[in-house]
């Protein structure tokens, strides 16, 4: 996670978690193989020799070339934006958008933070609870706003508890937000739904398929994107009218793309101490 950065035109607040090699907070953690400058010289020299040039690693200044990394990682690792195609092939009978088809207009605008840190881990966030939080903020949602769900789960990043200690959205709550004109919903938790273990336990008890990824699968009825694994929502100076950009990387026919959401505030003194 990252600190706020004071820029010439205001304060930038990074709301993302990056990719980390083997981190226990990911069930499928990224594998990052790093190559230093000496290895870079060897690799670049070998590439040029394959093209017919007589060059060795020691021909580089100080025997050092360019450092780089090779990654083996899914687009759902780290902070990322899920495209509608992640939830199903269609949305209300129309083809679901892949990540490169998501309009950039959806991914910028003003955000609203709803605080559900009081919710029990493994529970679901209901429509009534969303309405109550909005009432506490004295805020009515407007089309194009981005809603951020704060659970406090980012405090567990780097630990196995990150996978289990958070509440999730309900299908009804998800559809309610989208019906207000919200196209992007973010969460600081590992997942948008309740934890895998909670869903599995409830399904085992009831045999009800509606217990399996209900918030995600609501995206087969209403069109929206979700940002998972956000962070630092407590660093935001206010709860509403938060200027936010969250553009995803494009992956051909991708179900998701990594994203680095950033909030910008003109006055650094507005940051609140929490």
Automatic annotation (TrEMBL):
It comes from the Archaea. GO terms for molecular function: arylformamidase activity. InterPro entries: KFase/CYL, KFase_sf. Pfam families: Cyclase. GO terms for biological process: L-tryptophan catabolic process to kynurenine. This is Cyclase. It comes from Natrialba magadii (strain ATCC 43099 / DSM 3394 / CCM 3739 / CIP 104546 / IAM 13178 / JCM 8861 / NBRC 102185 / NCIMB 2190 / MS3) (Natronobacterium magadii). The lineage of its organism: Archaea, Methanobacteriati, Methanobacteriota, Stenosarchaea group, Halobacteria.
């Amino acid at each position: 996670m990252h600190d706020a950065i004071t820029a010439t035109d205001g304060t930038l607040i990074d709301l993302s978690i990056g990719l980390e090699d083997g981190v226990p907070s990911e069930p499928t953690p990224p594998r990052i193989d790093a190559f230093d400058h000496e290895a870079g010289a060897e690799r670049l020299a070998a590439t040029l020799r394959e093209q017919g040039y007589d060059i060795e690693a020691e021909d580089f200044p100080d025997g050092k070339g360019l450092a780089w990394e090779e990654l083996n990682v899914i687009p759902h690792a780290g902070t990322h934006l899920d495209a509608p195609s992640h939830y199903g092939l269609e949305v209300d009978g129309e083809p679901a958008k892949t990540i490169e088809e998501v309009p950039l207009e959806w991914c910028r605008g003003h955000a609203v933070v709803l605080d559900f840190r009081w919710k029990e881990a493994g529970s679901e966030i209901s429509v009534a609870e969303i309405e109550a939080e909005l009432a506490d903020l004295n805020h009515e949602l407007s089309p194009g706003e981005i809603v951020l769900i704060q659970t406090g789960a980012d405090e567990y990043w780097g630990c196995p508890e990150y996978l289990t200690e958070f509440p999730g959205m309900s299908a009804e709550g998800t559809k309610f937000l989208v019906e207000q004109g919200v196209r992007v919903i973010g969460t600081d938790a590992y997942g948008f739904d309740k934890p895998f273990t909670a869903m599995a336990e409830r399904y085992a008890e009831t045999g009800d398929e509606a217990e399996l990824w209900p918030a995600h699968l609501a995206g087969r009825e209403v069109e929206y994107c979700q940002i998972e694994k956000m962070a630092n929502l407590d660093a935001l100076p206010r709860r509403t009218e938060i200027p936010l950009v969250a553009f995803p990387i494009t992956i051909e026919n991708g179900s998701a793309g990594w994203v680095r959401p950033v909030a910008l505030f003109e006055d650094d003194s507005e940051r609140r101490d929490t």
